[in-house]
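Dataset card, provenance and construction

Sequences and ligand SMILES were collected as paired inputs. For each pair, a complete structure of the chain with the small molecule in place was predicted and serialized as structure tokens. The example below shows a pair involving zinc ion. Curators did not alter the output after generation; any descriptive sentences attached to a record were derived from the structure itself.
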Amino acid sequence: MMSSYWQNRAAQRELESQLISSKYLSRMEEQLRTAQINIIQQIETFYARYAVDNKISYAEAKKYLTAKELKDFRHTTLQQYRALSLEGNPAYDRALNAIGYRARISRLEALHLQIEMQMLELYGGRNGLQVYTYSGLGEVYENAYYKSLYDIATFTAIYQPITKLTNGVMKEILTYNWSGKEFSKRIWGHEARTMTTIRKELKKSFMRGRSLHKTARAISDATDVVLSRAEALVRTEANFFHNLAAQNSYITAGVNRYQILVTLDHRTSEICRAQDLKIYATKDYKPGVTAPPFHARCRSTSVAYFDEAEYMEGEQRIARGATGQTEYVSRSMPYEKWYQQFVQPANIDKPQFLRMKEKKST
Ligand SMILES: [Zn+2]
């Protein structure tokens, strides 16, 4: 039986990961709000230019740009976007090339491109959703990995040097495809789906003669979904990377078994209730089967498991500590001090732990 102090500590670490996710999600929300404002402004301009009685018919929307408008579009709008494409995102180039060399462009196509550029910026820009997801999950992983090793060290009183996580290792970890598709590909899937909805809503507006106000409302609703999709993805992925970090910490520290810990409240799923306190061999780690996440938005976690003998051994070791009193070393070694003393730069840029068998992405 493991102590509740120990289990609470692991639950606390899972909360830390949730807080890191929340921090990045609120940055994503800010970016979404900015993109929404820009998109609505573009639609306002479109209405200001082409609406009659606050309506634009589908036929009007599909009219080709005049020679002058086309020239402006090429020389101003496209030039601006080409400057953006220098940021090195191939998605910009694809969108621009699809339209850039056409002899004629309709008003609606021009509007679609303007909106698509906002969306590409929102997802793929320097402060875009993809970057935030990547950094957020990286921070979740690193924090969980080191904290778990620290917790194990202080619990067992076995202190050993830890190899620092390098960028190369983090890159390999973050592209791990555990659910059929790596998360960055799924983020771009969100972008494409949102763009499809926006196009449909605009078409609806022109077919039905919806006012600017109603169109703006419809586009706001269609783009609000961006955040809930991002949140579902980040929460589930954060739980996965949190638990992968714990798993790798067990391998690093030579812990052979771990125990599942489930947050029990009204939101806890049946599948997780059934997993609570189960003990698995570290070598049998399989996300969704022997380790969280067991489902989307799972909040379960795991903790290193020591049986009675190992636990007692740890306690004796602690009892033989400098003060001669039975005392957890953790209380005398803060995390920062442990990190300074035991986390050492890597001399090889390769993970020594868990070589993961990846599913083939489809
Ligand atoms: Zn769960």
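Derived descriptions for this record:
Residues 4-50 form the longest helix (47 residues).
The chain is about 65% helix and 5% strand.
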